[in-house]
């Protein structure tokens, strides 16, 4: 038995030596490198996304709607995304100064400026004299959508801008574009120097109510249709007096204004927006025609909320999704404009590429039109 084992071991040894001599492979296996295990990209956890934004705007004319919007967003995100209001009568003046002092706050600041201010900033024009915000802010949603500058009056004899000769007018909030547009219209109508412009710390509707002026500059929202609306202060004035009317700014006046102001024209501003006869009557809840004849006003003063383009996509997406999914809360929060606002909260006079990409995604997923393209589509269907 021992002899047989010895013979077998010897044969195996000889075979191994022969294989090596003939170039056989090393019997020891070559180690293989370890294969990397693919790690799947984790899906963002919505519950982990949170943010608090400082919302800078004038609470007087815009507060009711903005607080209602805040409630929609906080409800839809279970309080993970919060909006805290900072009351500033003129955000176009205050925000550039605020962010110049604290640039790191840009990504957690939302603020009201209108399309004309943003368009002029992009052209390098400092409208208010308080600075230009860079990088260019991106659009989110409107408090008062599809708005244009208009003049209203308590004098039934003032029907067009030319009729302001010899009259007193409140030009709108100082530091905003309203006094500038008013001046453009007065000059284009050939009555500059004949109109008594009365600046005031009061809102335009307050100066009209106190009979300190004959006319005042303001804005119309939801322009382009009979559902157009004024802000609550003007609605109350119309309801209590039955003596508030729109002053027409004809298209030839707007053409002259654009020709005389090429920077504005280059930014796509001062474009005529139709205001049909009978508009505003329903939203103001009066039984007379505030708009006495088919009229026009220059588009571009929508009360729009803007922020930094660098805000994280997931935060903006969740915020906008919450807003869009809960917009029926407007029926209780601000019923005077709820119906058109729910349909048109993205309607402003800037192109869709001016919106934050995550906001654009939320609008598209909800089937809600937005931007100038949305305005044009909506008007074409009326």
Q: Can you give a write-up of this model?
A:
The chain has 382 residues and is α/β, with parallel strands linked by helices. It folds into two domains: 51-143 and 303-368, 3-Layer(aba) Sandwich (D-Maltodextrin-Binding Protein, domain 2), CATH 3.40.190; 148-298, D-Maltodextrin-Binding Protein, domain 2 (3-Layer(aba) Sandwich). Helices cover 38% and strands 15% of the residues. The protein has 15 helices and twelve strands. The protein has helices spanning 2-21, 59-76, 91-101, 115-122, 178-188, 204-209, 232-241, 251-260, 262-266, 281-284, 313-325, 330-333, 338-344, 357-366, 371-380; strands at 51-57, 81-87, 109-113, 138-144, 148-153, 168-170, 196-197, 215-220, 245-247, 272-275, 295-298, 303-307. A five-stranded mixed beta sheet has the order 2-1-3-12-4. It has a five-stranded mixed beta sheet with strand order 7-6-8-5-9. Helix 2 links the parallel strand 1 and strand 2. Helix 5 (178-188) packs across helix 8 and helix 11 packs parallel to helix 14 (357-366).
Distance between the termini: 108 Å
Classify the fold: give the CATH topology of the largest domain: D-Maltodextrin-Binding Protein, domain 2
**Strand portion, in percent?**
15-25%
Shape: globular
Q: What count of structural domains?
A: 2
Properties at a glance:
disordered N terminus, 382 residues, 5-stranded mixed β-sheet, alpha/beta, D-Maltodextrin-Binding Protein, domain 2, 2 domains, 15 helices
């Amino acid at each position: 038995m021992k002899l047989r084992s010895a013979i077998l071991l010897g044969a195996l040894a000889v075979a191994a030596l022969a294989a090596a001599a003939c170039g056989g492979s090393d019997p020891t296996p070559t180690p293989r490198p370890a294969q990397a295990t693919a790690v799947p990209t984790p899906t963002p956890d919505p519950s982990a996304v949170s943010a608090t934004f400082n919302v800078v705007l004038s609470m007087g004319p815009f507060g009711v709607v903005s607080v209602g919007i805040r409630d929609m967003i906080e409800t839809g995100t279970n309080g993970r995304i919060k909006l805290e209001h900072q009351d500033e009568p003129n955000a176009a003046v205050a925000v550039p100064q605020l962010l110049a002092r604290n640039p790191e706050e840009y990504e957690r600041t939302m603020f009201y400026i209108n399309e004309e201010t943003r368009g002029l900033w992009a052209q390098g024009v400092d409208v208010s004299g308080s600075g230009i915000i860079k990088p260019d802010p991106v659009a989110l949603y409107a408090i008062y959508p599809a708005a244009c500058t208009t003049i209203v009056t308590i004098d039934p004899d003032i029907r067009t801008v030319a009729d302001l000769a010899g009259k007193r007018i409140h030009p709108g909030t100082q530091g905003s574009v309203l006094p500038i547009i008013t001046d453009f219209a007065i000059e284009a109508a050939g009555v500059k120097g004949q109109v008594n412009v009365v600046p005031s710390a009061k809102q335009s509707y307050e100066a009209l109510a106190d009979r300190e002026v004959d006319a005042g500059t303001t804005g119309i929202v939801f322009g382009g249709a009979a559902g157009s609306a004024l802000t609550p202060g003007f609605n109350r004035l119309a309801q209590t007096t039955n003596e508030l009317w729109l002053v027409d700014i004809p298209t030839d006046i707007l053409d002259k204004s654009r020709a005389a102001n090429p920077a504005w024209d280059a930014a796509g501003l001062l474009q005529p927006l139709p205001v049909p006869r009978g508009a505003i009557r329903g939203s103001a809840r009066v039984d007379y025609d505030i708009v006495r004849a088919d009229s026009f006003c220059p588009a571009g003063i929508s009360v729009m909320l803007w922020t930094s383009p660098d805000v994280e996509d997931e935060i903006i997406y969740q915020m906008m999704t919450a807003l869009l999914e809960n917009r029926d809360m407007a029926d209780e929060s601000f019923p005077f404009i709820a119906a058109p606002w729910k349909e048109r909260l993205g309607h402003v006079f800037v192109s869709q590429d001016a919106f934050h990409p995550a906001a654009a995604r939320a609008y598209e997923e909800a089937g809600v039109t937005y931007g100038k393209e949305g305005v044009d589509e909506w008007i074409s269907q009326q």
